[in-house]
Specification:
Number of strands: 26
Strand content: 15-25%
Largest sheet: 9 strands, mixed
Shape: globular
Structural class: alpha+beta
Strand order of the largest sheet: 13-12-14-11-10-15-16-18-17
């Protein structure tokens, strides 16, 4: 039975105290003195030593003000505060006398737990609701279950629990902020699906199944989707979401194998396989062309299994959300998980991406496989890495050689990868371009790593991802992919061809796609040992051609190296000045104010100082200096725009700076005339 403190109405609580229903109200309306004929009654929720027996009118006010008004409501019931000895507090020693103090508390209607504070009780009930536990063990009438919320993303409906953004241990997790991450992974899979059909892809941590559903719904017969999760509640929700999107479900667990199909699923004949097992187990048992890992936190525990059975020239993508360790907030955790020494730097996001790629490279090398990095993105909430697998000891050795240590100057933030070789350097500071060690006392540099020292992007693959994003209307991914293409080429030119990149020679871009106008069997990817040597040879040629135009490592933050008391030029103007000086330059997605360039830091600061202007202090003499410098800079930019207007796209953004300076000069002249 339910506790006496849980009632529907105040009248039910008064009945426990032998108060007749409406007795107090009738007495007040008739101006009757109750205590003349009434006997004293005690409170049913308070012990005798806390509240002594009293007359009905006083007991009514006590029940209403002390118990009913501070109750917690749930499903039509009120959980009133209780002072009975249901929750004994630790005994207190007062002199020689020991007494047990009874604390006020609430009784949970669902799990019969006792909670002391009202706010804690409300939070306790909300956690039950979030878990879907709304049926009380004390209520004879079954309480209606909370309806699941249906969200829509990229034409895919998913059914989620009310706590989808703040999951508990047994709940499925859906994060709307990871929409961009899901779109990037979808574009990478779409590019692979164009290379060979059909491909077997695995979403190792399905949760709600949103990612696998998007793959199957848009790519259809090009992919064979398998969604896995080790949580039984998540597997049930994945099946419900498949039925919601009219997809056939093939359930495959350790215990049993059976097929399920919805009757209304005739509109879409695609079948999604749903498995319930550990991610390491399914990747050991089966081979896949595309594997995506998105665990809660680090993914290093699943890398060995992922590379064990992934097919040659397949793709492995992983999302790491342990940003506290990757972004150098918990350095000891980064050392424990990734075996890497790091410090907080201005380029910490790219450092995080290179840490993850180094761990991926080592895991692939243990399976005699090499990698080619196709994409590396580090944003606020996650680090996404997409790599192509190259089977064989030679690619594994080539990839392992790109793992090096980084020398980082803590004074000027200059950095450089250590030279190859096993010989001990007599003075490692000589490798740094700066002279901080000679001018500053003590040790000025630290060794970070080991890190991935190779390229972070594949330009051809990114262009094809951009084409797929346009084809499927993925608006959020398109701006980022355009930035990544410019960053991969290390240029500020933002020209993208409107024709399909698949019309180009794909053998040069990826080295694996054989294009013929005949049957699909002839245009599919060539497997087997007969073509392995040719594939490896083409891949080596492509890597050799791309290494010559590899983008510079790391970037500089323009605000970090600004000069005190000087106004910096606009970022787009500064990029133009660096390119005019003969350096490769581009913006970076890692930092909105970052500049990726092959210019040394000293030259970077020199150009920044050259085109910076003193801060305006209101004097009339400084006005013409500002105007002359800005007008001259504007003329240089305009001349360059006239020469190649189609190449310099950022000039329109800088006209506001010249206009603002002209207004400042006119205003100063006007004040002087007055």
């Amino acid at each position: 039975e339910k506790h006496i403190s849980i009632q529907r109405h105040l009248a039910d609580l008064e009945k426990l105290a032998d108060l007749k229903e409406g007795e107090f109200t009738v007495a007040v309306s008739q101006n009757t003195v109750l205590h003349v004929t009434d006997e004293k009654k005690r409170c049913p929720l308070c012990p005798e030593e806390k509240f002594k027996a009293c007359y009905s009118h006083k007991l009514h006010r006590h029940l209403q003000n002390l118990h009913w008004k501070v109750s917690v409501e749930f499903e039509g019931y009120r959980m009133c505060i209780c002072h009975l000895p249901c929750r004994p507090v630790k005994p207190n020693l007062v002199g020689d006398q020991t007494f047990s103090k009874m604390g006020a508390h609430y009784h949970c209607i669902i799990c019969s737990a006792t909670i002391t504070r009202r706010t804690d009780m409300i939070g306790h009930i909300n956690r039950h609701v979030n878990k879907g536990e709304t049926e009380s063990r004390f209520i004879t009438v079954i309480a209606p279950k909370s309806s699941h919320e249906v969200l829509k993303e990229s034409a895919t409906d998913v059914q989620v629990l009310p706590n989808y953004s703040t999951p508990q241990k047994t709940d499925s997790y859906f994060n709307p902020k990871m929409k961009l991450n899901r779109q990037l992974i979808f574009c990478a899979l779409a590019v692979l699906a164009e290379e060979r059909k059909p491909i077997e892809c695995l979403d190792a941590f399905g949760a709600t199944g949103i990612m696998g559903l998007q793959w199957a719904k848009h790519l259809r017969s090009s992919v064979k989707v398998t969604i896995n999760d080790c949580n039984e509640n998540s597997v049930t929700m994945i099946q419900e979401n498949c039925h919601l999107n009219k997809m056939k479900v093939k359930l495959n667990t350790k215990e049993e194998d059976n097929d399920e199909a919805m009757g209304d699923g005739e509109e879409n004949t695609d079948t999604i396989e749903v498995t319930k097992m550990d991610a390491n187990v399914i990747m050991h048992l089966r081979s896949f062309d595309f594997i995506h890992l998105d665990p809660f936190g680090t993914s290093v525990n699943y890398l060995d299994s992922a590379f064990r059975n992934v097919r040659n020239l397949g793709i492995v993508s992983l999302t790491s959300t342990d940003i506290s360790s990757l972004y150098a907030k918990a350095q000891h955790v980064a050392l424990r998980h990734y075996g890497c020494n790091i410090v907080r730097t201005e380029y910490y996001k790219e450092l995080a991406a290179r840490i993850v790629i180094a761990a991926v490279t080592r895991a692939a090398a243990r399976c005699n496989k090499g990698i080619e990095v196709l994409l590396a993105v580090a944003l606020e909430h996650f680090v996404l890495v997409v790599v192509r697998v190259l089977r064989g000891p030679s690619p594994a050795d080539d990839s392992a050689k790109k793992i090096r240590y980084l020398i980082h100057c803590q004074w000027c933030e200059e950095r450089i990868f250590q030279k190859e070789g096993n010989m001990v350097e007599e003075n490692p500071y000589q490798q740094l371009p700066c002279d901080c060690h000679g001018s500053m006392p003590g040790k000025t540099a630290v060794v970070l790593g080991p890190l991935w020292s190779g390229a972070l992007f594949n330009t051809g693959f990114l262009r094809r991802m951009l084409f797929e994003a346009v084809q499927y209307g993925l608006d959020e991914a398109q701006p980022l992919l355009k930035t990544l293409v410019c960053e991969a080429e290390c240029t500020t030119l933002k020209h993208f061809s409107t024709h399909s990149p698949y019309e180009e020679n794909k053998q040069e871009e990826c080295g694996v796609y054989i294009k013929t106008p005949n049957t699909s069997a002839e245009s599919s990817l060539v497997h087997g040992k007969r073509k392995s040597e040719e594939v490896i040879r083409n891949t080596a040629k492509r890597q050799k051609s791309e290494n010559s135009a590899e983008h510079p490592a790391f970037y500089y933050n323009i605000h970090r190296h600004s000069i005190k008391g000087m106004n910096m030029p606009k970022l787009n103007k500064f990029l133009y000045y660096l390119s005019e000086a003969g350096y490769r330059v581009s913006r970076t997605h890692f930092d909105p104010m970052g500049v990726r360039t092959n210019a040394p830091l000293a030259q970077f600061k020199t150009i920044l100082m050259k085109y910076s202007t003193p801060t305006y202090t209101g004097g009339q003499a400084e006005g013409p200096v500002h105007l002359a410098e800005d007008v001259q800079a504007g003329e240089q930019v305009q001349a360059a725009a006239d020469g190649k207007a189609e190449d310099v796209e950022f000039l329109e953004d800088d006209k506001s700076g010249v206009a603002a300076t002209t207004f400042t000069e006119d205003y100063a002249t006007h004040c002087a005339a007055d």
